UniProtKB/TrEMBL annotation:
Gene3D superfamilies documented for this protein: Winged helix-like DNA-binding domain superfamily/Winged helix DNA-binding domain
Listed GO MF terms: DNA-binding transcription factor activity
All residue ranges annotated as the HTH marR-type domain in the record: 65-130
Superkingdom classification of source: Bacteria
Transmembrane segments: none
Organism: Piscinibacter sakaiensis (Ideonella sakaiensis)
Name of protein: Putative transcription regulator with HTH domain, MarR family
Length: 183
């Protein structure tokens, strides 16, 4: 009779020549070691990305923003179309509308976003000042990030493939979150 593996049993070693980098070894699954490595990569990348966007926006002149504030500002500015709170939450995949609403109020207080009421509905758009900060951010991004990336056609292709994979995985994580919420 074969004994079932329990969480305390060590996993078999990773394949030869494979460097395993995970943040929570106790979560590594024998069915997909790579997913744990990806999750660690997401943690590190998310923190680096958050730090980057805050510092880039600070260099553009807006100093008191959180990563979510920066992302909300960029989304409100996107395609120069007015956005509703629900649309912003949906596109950014944020369930907690109060987080986005708080960012919008903060951005309005800074004079970079304005809200327009039409009946019961409020739509948001960037102000001239907001568009200037976003344009300055774009210039700094081009100089500091894109310049440092030095992307080749092959690297750009790989980045595109990774972006598609991350979007697909976000759906898997959303589905898993719904399943976990029903337990």
């Amino acid at each position: 009779m074969t004994r079932r593996r329990n969480a305390a049993d060590p996993l078999p070693p990773p394949p030869e020549g494979h460097l395993e980098i995970v943040s929570s070894a106790h979560l590594v699954s024998p069915k997909s070691r790579e997913l744990s490595e990806l999750e660690y990569g997401l943690i590190v990348s998310n923190n680096a990305f958050s730090r980057w966007i805050v510092h880039c926006m600070k260099a553009a002149g807006l100093k008191e923003l959180t990563p979510l504030d920066v992302l909300v500002l960029h989304h409100v500015n996107h395609r120069a179309r007015d956005k509703r709170l629900s649309d912003i939450c949906f596109i950014m995949n944020v369930e907690d509308t109060h987080l986005i609403n708080y960012s919008l109020k903060k951005l309005q207080g800074l004079g970079v976003v304005e809200g327009t009421r039409s009946g019961k509905e409020v739509t948001y758009a960037t102000t001239d000042a907001g568009r200037q900060y976003v344009e300055r951010y774009r210039q700094i991004r081009e100089e500091c990030l894109i310049g440092a990336l030095n992307a080749t056609e092959t690297l750009n292709h790989d980045i595109g493939e990774l972006a598609r994979l991350l979007r697909a995985l976000s759906g898997v994580y959303d589905q898993a979150a719904r399943a976990a919420a029903s337990l």
